[in-house]
Structure formats: structure tokens, C-alpha cells
């Protein structure tokens, strides 16, 4: 992550515990530290990575202020964590069709998104395999039909399609690498939509 992303994450964590003034001072301290390392020739991403894990940094800052970090856990967004009252039960029953609609829309979005990715991957692979097949087929026009024009046309078309397939594979792998680098996954996306973090008292 770059400096802006790091500072945003750090600010969101520290605001739960420290005053605005303390947060401001701490952010400036880390901004200057990152800038100094950038001046030494590092990129922002390298400078940030050298600072360490964001959770460890927050833990150290809280230790310096003698503040105990609150623990968090994941809970389902649409399921109450406390025993519901009669009024809440009635409201939940009345809103049930809306929750079903929302859930259906989200599920449809996931299915469409997965289908688009699957179709894109299959199309790229089909281009590559189809191009190789044409390249392998081209010599048969020359050997069995004695048709040089068909042979050259098929060979050229095969190379073009194979090239398109290779370009597609390159960008797919590049996108996959970027996604994995950012820590994105279907599991995390599911958790983000259907679950939320709540603080628990120990």
C-alpha cells in the first residue's frame, strides 16, 4: 500500500482510542518517516512495508499510551446479537420480504460477476487453443490439398488468434497477481457484505 492508504488505515484505527490531536501528531510522525525513506530512494510502497504490520504498529502506539486494544469479532449483519424484543420481532417479520430481496440481489450480483470472470477466462483460453489448432492445421492444406494460399492464410490467422490469446493470458495473470497482492478473495468479499466487526469486552 502507498502512504495515503497506510495513513487512512492508521487513522481509522487510532481514532477509536486517541484524541484528534494525538492522532494528528502520530500521523505526521509516520508521514515524515515515510517521506524520509522515499528521499533515500525507496518507493512509497517499499517505505510503508518496512514500517511493519498495521496491527502491530497500532498495538505499539496503544502500549505507549497505556491503552488496551479492544478485541473484535465477526458477526452476521442481519442477525441480532441480543435477545430481540417483541417490537423488534414484529419489525423483522415485516421487513423479511425486503431482506429476501436484498439477499437475492446480492446473490445475483455474485453469480453475474463470477459468470463474467469465468466467461472471460474461457474466451481467452479458447482463443489461444484455437490459434494453436489453426497453426497445426495449416500444413495439411499444403500437404494434402497443395493449396499454398489456404496454408498461409490459416497460418497467419492462427498466429493472430494465438497472439490475442497470449495477450489475454498475460493480462489475466497480471490481474490475478494484483488481486492476490491486495489480499482480495471471494471469501473476504462475502465476509465484507454479510458480516461486520463488533467490539467485545473482556
Write out key terms for the chains shown.
two-stranded antiparallel ribbon; membrane; mainly alpha; flat; 6% strand; 2 strands; 7 helices; 202 residues
Structure characterization notes:
The chain crosses the membrane at residues 86-106, 112-136, 148-173. Keywords: Membrane, Transmembrane, Transmembrane helix. This is DUF1700 domain-containing protein. The chain has 202 residues and is mainly α. It contains seven helices and two strands, in the order ααααβαααβ. It has helices at 3-14, 20-39, 44-51, 54-64, 86-144, 148-181, 186-194, and strands spanning 71-76, 195-200. A two-stranded antiparallel sheet has the order 1-2. α1 (3-14) crosses α4. The chain starts with a helix and ends with a strand. The relative contact order is 0.09. The model has no long low-confidence stretch (mean pLDDT 82).
H/E series:
HHHHEHHHE
Give the helix/strand class: mainly alpha
Intertermini distance: 32 Å
With helices defined by DSSP (H or I, 4 residues minimum), what is the helix count? Answer: 7
Strand order of the largest sheet: 1-2
- Give the biggest beta sheet: 2 strands, antiparallel
Poorly predicted runs: none
Rg (C-alpha, Å): 28 Å
The share of residues in helices is: over 70%
- The average pLDDT score comes to 82
**Total strands:** 2
* Coarse shape: flat
Amino acid at each position: 500500500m502507498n502512504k495515503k492508504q497506510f495513513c487512512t488505515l492508521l487513522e481509522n484505527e487510532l481514532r477509536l482510542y486517541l484524541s484528534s490531536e494525538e492522532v494528528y501528531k502520530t500521523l505526521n510522525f509516520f508521514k515524515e518517516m515515510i517521506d524520509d525513506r522515499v528521499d533515500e530512494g525507496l518507493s512509497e510502497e517499499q517505505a510503508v512495508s518496512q514500517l511493519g504490520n498495521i496491527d502491530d504498529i497500532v498495538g505499539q502506539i496503544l502500549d505507549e499510551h497505556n491503552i488496551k486494544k479492544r478485541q473484535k469479532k465477526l458477526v452476521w449483519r442481519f442477525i441480532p446479537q441480543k435477545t430481540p424484543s417483541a417490537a423488534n420481532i414484529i419489525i423483522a417479520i415485516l421487513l423479511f420480504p425486503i431482506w429476501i430481496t436484498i439477499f437475492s440481489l446480492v446473490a445475483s450480483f455474485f453469480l453475474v460477476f463470477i459468470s463474467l470472470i469465468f466467461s472471460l477466462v474461457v474466451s481467452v483460453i479458447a482463443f489461444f487453443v484455437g490459434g494453436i489448432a489453426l497453426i497445426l492445421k495449416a500444413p495439411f492444406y499444403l500437404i494434402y490439398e497443395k493449396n499454398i494460399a489456404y496454408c498461409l492464410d490459416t497460418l497467419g490467422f492462427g498466429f493472430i488468434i494465438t497472439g490475442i490469446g497470449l495477450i489475454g493470458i498475460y493480462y489475466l495473470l497480471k490481474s490475478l497477481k494484483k488481486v492476490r497482492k491486495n489480499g482480495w478473495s471471494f471469501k473476504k468479499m462475502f465476509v465484507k457484505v454479510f458480516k461486520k466487526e463488533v467490539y467485545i469486552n473482556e
